[in-house]
Design goal:
Length: 405
């Protein structure tokens, strides 16, 4: 009797687990590129020797790893993996070089594209018919996954290999376009393309634009496997898809909103952004700030969709940030207002103790030295933000032919 009850309980537990898994898949409104590829019987890669650019975010809508799916797909020869910043498991800290290693799920070599090279070498690509890209981007120019995509497209063009993008949502949606462009000489790995800081495009859409504009040199043979069910008004929470931590400090589907709003400040030594806590990029503090004064200033900035409350901790004061991603407020602008207040509160010592020295990290991510120069010159934050308008509107028109959704 006890054994019978145990067996019944076990069967019920399995049934419950199955129902939960089925409900999770049913909730997902969006079919990712990897799902669409599988639904087609892997038509775009069948009979080909392929490499896969992936990490822990490369999953189907049900959470199964793309590299496992492709490794066991009939008629598909997955022979190598390639990994971006943060590594195959997404656990390496920002800016830390990643070593190549063997993948324990597939037994394949996982070549690092954030180590001794940022671009696949001819030796890495030898014998491949196609290189497949399936990484979850966060919609901000300074996040390096799509920079890696660009380098891969360049390598494929040089080595006459097809490049295939399995498309994924932009977690910020496809309508938000904002922030500074890239100034003269500003192209670098955290500003790889001449696009606004927030570009409102999926990986597949941006790949089409990169190719057509020759931003990485000669165009490659490009195939995009589009999603089904995604539209431009969707934030991540609207997709019904589970979020996989894309890097150590992007733990939730709404984390990209906060990364955009405060991440530029993180390139400056001194201010604390909640990194290493459960609210990365969701607070801003420094030893020289007064929490009530700083919070009142931010509330008075008129930034729609953003709310602030005083923060005190660890000897610092500042503000907690809350964001409604569907509101029309300019998220990138928050960085500018915070930097202006911090520059004043620090007695003009925010960027460097050496007058005239440009903060290299901020220059790279902003796409030039203009933000520091304008802040030091006393330009009002609203005027700095207004200076982005013409380039943003021009980009909206320029990107239109490449939109898939």
């Amino acid at each position: 009797m006890v054994r019978s009850l145990a067996q019944s309980t076990s069967r019920l537990s399995l049934a419950a687990a199955f129902l939960l898994a089925s409900a999770a898949v049913a909730l997902a409104q969006v079919r990712l590129g990897i799902d669409v590829l599988r639904d087609s019987g892997f038509a775009e890669v069948k009979g080909k020797r392929i490499g896969l650019v992936t990490n822990q975010t490369g999953t189907d809508a049900a959470g199964e790893r793309d590299r496992v799916l492709l490794h066991r797909a009939p008629g598909v020869q997955l022979v190598a993996l390639f990994t971006p910043e943060h590594g195959l498991d997404g656990t390496e800290l920002a800016g830390k070089y990643v070593a190549s290693r063997k993948d324990n799920l597939t037994g394949l070599q996982a070549y690092s594209l954030y180590g001794t090279t940022r671009k696949p070498t001819p030796a890495m690509l030898k014998g491949l018919d196609a290189l497949v890209f399936d990484l979850q981007d966060i919609g901000s120019r300074s996040y390096t996954y799509l920079s890696t995509m660009g380098k891969c497209m360049q390598a494929c063009a040089e080595n006459h290999i097809e490049f295939i993008v399995l498309d994924r949502p932009d977690p910020l949606g496809g309508e938000r376009v904002e922030g500074p462009g890239v100034g003269p000489g500003g192209i670098n790995f955290v500003a790889q393309f001449p696009v606004p800081y927030v570009y409102g495009m999926t990986a597949g859409e941006l790949a089409k634009m990169i190719n057509a504009k020759h931003w990485m040199g000669a165009p490659c043979k490009l195939t995009v496997v589009p999603m089904k069910g995604w539209h431009r008004g969707m934030l991540w929470a609207d997709t019904g898809l589970p979020w996989v931590r894309s890097s150590p400090n992007i733990p939730r589907g709404d984390s990209p909103l906060y990364y955009v709003a405060t991440g530029l400040v993180g390139d400056i030594t001194g201010p604390e952004l909640g990194i290493g806590t459960d609210v990365p990029f969701q607070r801003m503090s420094a030893s020289y700030l007064d929490s009530e004064e700083f919070t009142g200033y931010l509330r008075g900035a008129g930034l729609a969709g953003m709310s602030f409350s005083p923060y005190r901790g660890g000897g610092n004061e500042g503000a907690n940030v809350r964001i409604d991603g569907h509101a029309a407020g300019n998220l990138t602008a928050l960085n500018v207002y915070m930097i202006a207040a911090m520059y004043k509160a620090s007695g003009g010592k925010l960027f460097s103790k050496l007058p005239g020295q440009v903060n290299a990290d901020l220059r790279a991510t902003y796409g030039g030295a203009s933000l520091q120069r304008m802040t030091e010159a006393g330009m009002a934050p609203a005027k700095i933000v207004e200076g982005w308008t013409a380039e943003v509107e021009s980009f909206r028109r320029e990107r239109q032919p490449f939109l898939l959704y």
